[in-house]
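Deliverable D2.4 — example input (structure tokens):
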């Protein structure tokens, strides 16, 4: 597969129309909580996913939220927008893998762990809004699910080759597809009209394009990705190095990141409600 086959990726379905509507609504400063809630409420499974998350240990609220409009008032527009995006992507791409060597459950567990760690870093290092960081971590490897869903034979080849030759999957993706899951993820997230910061966070999480600069979200996801991999929550066995440039942009050291290992795991435990979204 070559770069021009990105056209084939253009056949990747759009997220439900309602999601696009919500993203556009968010740009309108005059929108009310009730109006946003009305749009979300058209999809009952989305409503129940959102209520499940906002009532989980993840938010640890003291009383029960029973409607989306309450959730919007309490948690804010951006948080609900990000939850809608998270729930929709996970609902659409859970289930069984198509490539025999890929395990979507494991993929999403890695992604949830990375989301939790990205959110912790964002909070502690005050470098991005935590909910945006969480969402970016959650979908950072979405390109792999796209490869699995739409190019299962090629993806299986990349997985087997990585295993046989003891290479990083990232490397064999490049060999087989001519581009990596990061680039495919960027392409698809842009097509889905995700906010720009998140699109670049996905596309650059293994490093920005030549001469590009690390943006904060991409750098945060990169550090989180390496940290959760070191904790054993990863696909494949390879050990990635932390990028010095990414750390520099964030103004922190590898030791600073390591000092947060326990906080990453605690946040991951609190986030396990997200695993319910992938069945
Ligand atoms: Fe990745
Ligand atoms: Fe990853």
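Example output (designed residues):
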């Amino acid at each position: 597969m070559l770069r021009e086959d990105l056209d084939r990726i253009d056949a990747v379905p759009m997220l439900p129309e309602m999601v696009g509507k919500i993203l556009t609504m968010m740009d309108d400063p005059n929108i009310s909580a009730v109006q946003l809630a009305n749009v979300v409420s058209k999809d009952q499974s989305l409503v129940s996913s959102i209520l499940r998350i906002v009532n989980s240990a993840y938010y640890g609220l003291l009383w029960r939220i029973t409607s989306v409009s309450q959730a919007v008032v309490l948690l804010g527009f951006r948080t609900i927008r990000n939850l809608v995006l998270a729930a929709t992507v996970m609902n659409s791409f859970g289930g069984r893998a198509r490539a025999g060597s890929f395990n979507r459950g494991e993929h999403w567990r890695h992604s949830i762990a990375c989301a939790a760690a990205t959110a912790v870093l964002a909070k502690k290092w005050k470098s991005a809004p935590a909910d945006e960081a969480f969402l970016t971590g959650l979908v950072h490897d979405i390109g792999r699910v796209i490869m699995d869903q739409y190019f299962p034979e090629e993806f299986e080849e990349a997985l087997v080759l990585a295993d046989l030759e003891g290479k990083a999957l990232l490397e064999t993706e490049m060999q087989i597809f001519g581009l990596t899951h990061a680039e495919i993820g960027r392409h698809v997230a842009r097509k889905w009209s995700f906010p720009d910061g998140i699109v670049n966070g996905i596309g650059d999480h293994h490093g920005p394009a030549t001469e590009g600069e690390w943006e904060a979200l991409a750098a945060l996801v990169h550090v989180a990705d390496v940290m959760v991999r070191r904790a054993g929550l990863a696909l494949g066995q390879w050990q990635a190095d932390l990028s010095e440039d990414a750390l520099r942009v964030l103004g922190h050291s590898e030791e600073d990141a390591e000092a947060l290992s326990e906080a990453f795991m605690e946040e991951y435990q609190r986030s396990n409600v997200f695993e319910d979204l992938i069945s």
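The first helix runs from residue 6 to 9.
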